[in-house]
Amino acid sequence: MFSVKKLTAAILLASMAGTASADQTVEATAADVAAKPVVEMPDFEAIRKQSEARRAALKAEMESRVAAHKAEMDKLTAEHETVVAVDSSIEEFRKQMDAERAEIEAEMEARRAAHKAEMDQHREEIRKEIDARRAEMDKHFESLRAEAVTGK
Asked: What sign does the dihedral 6-7-9-10 (CA atoms) show?
């Protein structure tokens, strides 16, 4: 097989150099071309099939990765929803405890107020009793003084 470009280039060089005839140049070029191994055309169908197989393998790998990532995200989403549910139940429990605490505090405040009122009333009764006894004692001392002064 002769390359037209190489043959033309060799003829041009020989004619410019003027040392070789066109036949010698053609023979030298033909020998040069024959000495080189023949380059075969690549098998484009095999390359296409190999490329498609590689593309299919990469696609399968990506789908596998996407599925694994989706599974991980679903797992994390489920864990998050569980945490949110627990947090909301804890929040509900806190609200319930706060309401009960407020109720207990109101009840305790009412008891304190009732106890204080009762104690104030009891103190007032004791003061009245003390004042009545003082008045009685004062009358008794006055009568004793009056007896001492009058001599009876």
From this structure: positive
29's CB contacts (< 8 A; 6+ apart) are 2, 6, 7, 10, 11
**DSSP string for 47-90:** HHHHHHHHHHHHHHHHHHHHHHHHHHHHHHHHHHHHHHHHHHHH
The per-residue pLDDT for range 84-123, each reduced to its tens digit, is 898 889 999 999 999 999 999 999 999 999 999 999 999 9
Kindly tell me the burial class for residue 59, based on how many C-beta atoms sit within 10 Å of its own C-beta (0-12, 13-18, 19 or more).
exposed
- CB proximity list for 6: less than 8 A, separation 6 or greater: 29, 32, 33
Check if the beta carbon of residue 14 is closer than 8 Å to that of residue 21: yes
8 A C-beta contact, residue 14 and residue 20: yes
Length of the chain (residues) = 152
Please, are residues 26 and 12 in contact by the beta-carbon 8 Å criterion? no
Summarised one tens digit per residue, pLDDT across range 71-80 is 999 999 999 9
